[in-house]
Amino acid sequence: MKRLADKVALITGAGRGIGAAIAFAFAREGAAVVLAELDIETAERTAREIRAALGASASAIDTRGADKASEAKVLAVQTDVTQSASVQHAVSEAEHTFGALDVLVNNAGINVFCDPLTMTDDDWRRCFAVDLDGVWNGCRAVLPGMVERGAGSIVNIASTHAFKIIPGCFPYPVAKHGVLGLTRALGIEYAPRNVRVNAIAPGYIETQLTHDWWNEQADPAAAKQATLDLQPMKRIGRPEEVAMTAVFLASDEAPFINATCITVDGGRSALYHD
C-alpha cells in the first residue's frame, strides 16, 4: 500500500529543488499532486518528468486543460504565493480536478540576505511577502475545508535559520522564525479538529540556490569545500531527504505529531562549535 494513496496534495514552489523532490515523492507514494508554482513553465516541465518517471499515460496538463487533468495525477497551476487570490485559485483548481485537499506543503521561498542598516524597505517586504505571508496565504486557503472535514496535514518548509543565526543573512531568519511561530499557533488552534500543522527545517541542501551561492563566491570550489567541512557528515543534504520527511508528516503514520518542527541537517545545528 502506498503511503499517500488516495490523498490530494498541493505543493507551493514545486517547480524545482526541494519542492520538486516533494512532488516526486508524493506522486510515487500515490498522491494526486498539484504543483503551485510562479514559473509555470518550470512546473509543467516537472509535471511531465513526474508522469514520465511513473509511467503515467496522461498528456501535459495545465490550468487550460482541466478536462484532461481529471485523468491524471499531476496538475501544474501558476501561483503567486504573495497574492491570496492566486493561492485560493490554485486550491480551487486542485479541488475541481482531484477533490478535497488532504495535504498542503508550503515550500515556496526566497533568500533575502542584507545588512540590516542598508537593507531597503523593498527588500524587507519582498522577504516577508514570500517567506511568511506566502505560508499564511496557503494555510488560510486550505484550513476552512480541512476544518470542515475534520482532517488535514499542513507541512511548512522552514529552515535551520528559524533557530540559528548566520551573520549577513538578515531578514531571512526573521521570516523563518515567523514560520515556526505560525506553525505552532495554527497547530494548537486546529488540533481539536484533527488538522495537524508541522514544519521541516532543512539545513544545507544541494539545490540550485546552493550552487548559485557557491558560484557567486571568488573561489566556488573553495566555498563548496568550506560548506562541506562544516557538516558533521561531511556532505550536505539532498532534496529527496527533505521530501521523505514531508511524506512522513503528510501520511497517516504521523497522526500524533503536531505543532512541531523536524530538523533535517545531518546534525549541524546540534554542533556546539567547529
Automatic annotation (TrEMBL):
Top-level taxon of origin: Bacteria
InterPro entries assigned: NAD(P)-bd_dom_sf, Sc_DH/Rdtase_CS, SDR_fam
Listed Gene3D superfamilies: NAD(P)-binding Rossmann-like Domain
GO molecular function, one term: oxidoreductase activity, acting on the CH-OH group of donors, NAD or NADP as acceptor
Listed CDD domains: SDR_c
Listed NCBIfam families: PRK07063.1, PRK07231.1
Family: Belongs to the short-chain dehydrogenases/reductases (SDR) family.
Protein name: SDR family oxidoreductase
